[in-house]
């Protein structure tokens, strides 16, 4: 007997962020950044691929050799085959092409198999149920990362078409609205919406400029978050990043909405990593979305941003007005 398919809305808490795939020509830099700065374990390295481990999953952060210096894809883990079938059916009903990956492709991701499609902003969406596991003790500079039921972290994405972007995550994954932040940065007003897929306060954040829609970010994501297990782990990672010379974009601070303590460091490919500790989890019975003014209760001060960085963002924002941001069919 085939498994029953989830009812509408039933995919909530059946989806977690499973892995991130980056394309970069800087594999040596990524090895040092991931292992020595972020404190992950180097799981695999050859001429074409670098893979880092955070927990029992064989691979959580995968870097492929190439010129892009960008995130290629996000792997989303589905709870079971019925949940995967439901997501695939929703994509196909929208006319979005999906295809099964080869066994070799699945091996590079550290999963038994996966399906793939192109999501918002051209970001690869990869869907799997079964990660390949490594039960050997972890050898990391960090004591542990918080993953498990909530996944490996969250991603933040800037968009000129936020309504379509939000509709994709709501309609395909049954994302729920956690809250909003209104932020004033570099003379622009940003509206940021936070979406959850499971008990983690948010797995996806979508930011847009108010008024004229512009996108100052070169990469498909603005940042990716990992959650340290202890405050000591957070502090030690901050010290390592500074000692190794990785640019601290925003210093230590605490967010207004999820209360996470964190700092932001620029990765070798240009997007940022938020390294955080102890965000709140949502109580589904009592939670009500709210609007917060500003991203931080305290801290998160810019530290190593140059005039060149700001001019580059301004130039990209203006150039973004020319093209149309990619959205999958039906959104």
UniProtKB/TrEMBL annotation:
Signal peptide as annotated in the record: none
Stated name of the protein: VOC family protein
Pfam families assigned to the protein according to its UniProt record, in alphabetical order: BphC_D1 (PF22632), Glyoxalase (PF00903)
PROSITE patterns: VOC
Domain VOC, chain residue ranges per copy: 16-130, 151-278
Domain of life: Bacteria
């Amino acid at each position: 007997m085939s498994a029953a398919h989830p009812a509408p809305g039933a995919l909530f808490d059946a989806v977690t962020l499973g892995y991130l795939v980056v394309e970069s020509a800087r594999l040596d830099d990524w090895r040092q950044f991931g292992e020595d700065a972020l404190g992950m374990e180097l799981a695999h390295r050859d001429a074409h691929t670098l893979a880092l481990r955070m927990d029992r999953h064989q691979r959580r952060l995968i870097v492929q050799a190439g010129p892009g210096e960008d995130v290629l894809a996000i792997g989303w883990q589905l709870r079971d085959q019925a949940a995967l079938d439901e997501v695939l059916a929703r994509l196909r009903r929208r006319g979005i092409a999906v295809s099964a990956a080869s066994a070799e492709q699945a091996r590079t991701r550290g999963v038994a198999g996966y399906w793939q499609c192109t999501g918002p902003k051209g970001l690869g969406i990869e869907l799997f149920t079964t990660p390949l596991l490594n039960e050997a003790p972890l050898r990391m500079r960090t004591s542990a990362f918080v993953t498990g039921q909530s996944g490996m972290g969250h991603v933040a994405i800037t968009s000129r078409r936020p309504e379509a972007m939000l509709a994709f995550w709501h309609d395909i994954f049954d994302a729920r609205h956690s809250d909003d932040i209104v932020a004033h940065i570099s003379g622009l007003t940003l509206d940021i919406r936070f979406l959850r897929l499971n008990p983690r306060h948010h797995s996806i954040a979508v930011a847009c400029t108010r008024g004229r829609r512009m996108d100052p970010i070169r990469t498909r994501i603005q940042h990716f978050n990992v959650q340290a297990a202890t405050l000591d782990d957070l502090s030690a990672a901050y010290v390592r990043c500074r000692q190794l010379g990785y640019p601290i974009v925003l210093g230590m601070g605490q967010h207004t909405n999820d209360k996470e303590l964190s700092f932001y460091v620029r990765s070798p490919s240009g997007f940022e990593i938020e390294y955080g500790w102890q965000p709140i989890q949502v109580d589904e019975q009592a939670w009500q979305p709210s609007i917060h003014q500003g991203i931080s209760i305290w801290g998160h001060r810019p530290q190593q941003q140059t005039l060149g960085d700001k001019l580059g963002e301004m130039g990209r924002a203006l150039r973004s007005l020319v093209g149309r941001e990619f959205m999958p069919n039906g959104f």
